[in-house]
Structures are given as C-alpha cells and as structure tokens.
C-alpha cells in the first residue's frame, strides 16, 4: 500500500501534518479553555477524552517530523508540555480545575500516539528502504 507508506514517511507531507496538528491544537484549546467542559457523562470520562485528544496530537506531531527516536522524543515532550500548560491555565478558569491525573492521561495518550506511528511506520516501510534491506 504505497499510499499509506507515503502518508507515514513522505517529507513533502510533513507540512500538511503540521497543519493538521495546528488545527488539533486549536480545537483542544477551545475545549480546554471554555468555562464548561463539554463531553461524555460517566466516571472518568474526562480522562478518556484526554487520552484520545493527546493520542491524536502525539501522532500528528510524530508524523510532522522525520522518523527517528529523537524526533519522537521531541514530539512527545512538546505535546506533553502543551498538556501541562493547559492544566496551568485551567487553574485560573472558573468552573475548571487542574489535575495531575489529567497530565498522566495526556502522557498515556502521547505515548499511545507515538507508539501507533512507530508501529505503522514499521508495518508500512518506505518502498526503497524495504527493497534495500532485502538486497543487502
């Protein structure tokens, strides 16, 4: 599936992934900084929302950078720092609160997003890289 491989590896698509990441950051900011938290109505639903949101942010951040451990580390730390900033701002918003459990949920989401991208990149390698490793 060259299309999926291209989505995961093509340098020309990194700018598009950065644009998607920017849009997601804006959506998360609107949701996080609104006075009332929108969402699901069951115990710990907000933790699930944190995990899903930061999974998407982590995956987009990883896809917007070249493949590699250092890029993934930088992407993960940057997105986690964003989550910490959100919690710091929420301390000052009426009807909102900051919780360290939200940061833990953010970290789980980021790690999940980075892991999914890493697995997908292994499963759908660059076409040239796959043929190169077979011939050597």
Please give a structural write-up.
This protein is an all-alpha fold. The protein has one domain (2-125). The chain is built from six helices and no strands. Residues 129-136 have low confidence and may be disordered.
Structural class determined from secondary elements: mainly alpha
User: How would you name the oligomeric state of the polypeptide chains in this document?
Assistant: single chain
SSE ordering? HHHHHH
Radius of gyration: 17 Å
Distance between the termini: 23 Å
Number of strands: 0
| Estimated share of beta-strand residues | under 5%
Shape: elongated
Low-confidence stretches: 129-136
The tally of structural domains comes to 1
List keywords for this structure.
elongated, 0% strand, 136 residues, mainly alpha
Concise account of the structure shown:
By secondary structure, the chain is an all-alpha fold.
Q: Could you outline the blueprint of secondary structure elements for this entry?
A:
Blueprint: H1 2-9, H2 14-33, H3 45-63, H4 69-90, H5 100-123, H6 127-135
């Amino acid at each position: 599936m060259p299309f999926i491989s291209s989505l995961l590896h093509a340098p020309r698509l990194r700018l598009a992934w950065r644009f998607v990441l920017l849009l997601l950051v804006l959506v998360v900011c609107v949701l996080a900084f609104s006075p009332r938290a929108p969402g699901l109505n069951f115990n710990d639903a907000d933790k699930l929302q944190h995990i899903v949101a930061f999974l998407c942010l982590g995956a987009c951040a990883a896809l917007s950078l070249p493949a590699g451990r250092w890029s993934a580390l930088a992407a993960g730390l940057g997105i986690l720092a964003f989550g910490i900033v959100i919690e710091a701002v929420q301390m000052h918003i009426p009807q909102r609160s900051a919780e360290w459990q939200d940061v833990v949920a953010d970290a789980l989401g980021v790690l999940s997003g980075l892991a999914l991208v890493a697995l997908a990149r292994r499963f759908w390698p660059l076409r040239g890289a796959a043929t190169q490793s077979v011939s050597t």
